[in-house]
Amino acid sequence: MVNNNIIEIFNNQIEAELYKLINEFKIDNGYEFEIRLGIIEPTKYQPNIPFNLFKQVIDITSNLYKTAKYEYSVYYDLFKNKIRTRYLYLEDLKTTVKLASIEKTPIKNIDIDLKYIYNIDLRYALSNEKPTTEIVKDEDATLILEKKRHSFNFNNSFSLDLTEIIRMNKDELGKVNRESP
């Protein structure tokens, strides 16, 4: 809706749902609250955006927020059932180190169709990330994602993470094939 040259992307119902989600997030520090760019498809939310747009967002953020602390990291997330074990890649040592394992349970997603503004949509997602001692190893993983993350930290108030995700599939010979999810 356009009112006095201002485009309102939230109707009253969505705004109320978002406030409820944010209040739930404030209650439990085990919760993760994310805002994702992507495309709403008939059967799922597709988090992929065009790579040139991804790079533009990084460039714009770098130029607009020069005081934000910037960090680049490469992670490998190994999944089995609801368990995710994250490994950090150490470039200098050409190896990974285990960071943590969590059991992630989605709580609620709110999708907002913005295709009338730009060919991109928003998803607000709240999930519970509970630490676990279970460890997913390479040989047990049903899914492996390489995540190349550009993080902008805003005075420890919040972090803007822009992540390129590559699905890593092994064939029957153990050869790794890489593809966008």
Give the overall pLDDT as a whole number: 87
Which percent range describes the beta-strand content?
over 45%
How far is the first residue's CA from the last residue's CA?
Answer: 33 Å
Helical stretch count?
2
| Biggest sheet details | 9 strands, antiparallel
* Element string (H = helix, E = strand): EEHEEHEEEEEEE
Which bin fits the share of residues in helices? 10-25%
Q: What would you report as the Rg, rounded to the nearest angstrom? A: 18 Å
Given as residue ranges, the uncertain stretches (5+ residues, pLDDT < 50) are: none
Explained architecture:
The protein is an alpha+beta fold. The protein has 2 helices and 11 strands. The chain has helices spanning 12-27, 51-64, and strands at 2-3, 6-7, 31-40, 45-46, 69-80, 83-90, 95-112, 121-131, 143-154, 158-170, 176-179. Strand 1 and strand 2 form a beta hairpin. The longest helix is centred in the first third of the chain and has 16 residues, at 12-27. The protein is globular, with a radius of gyration of 18 Å. The mean pLDDT is 87.
In short:
By secondary structure, this protein is α+β, with helices and mostly antiparallel strands.
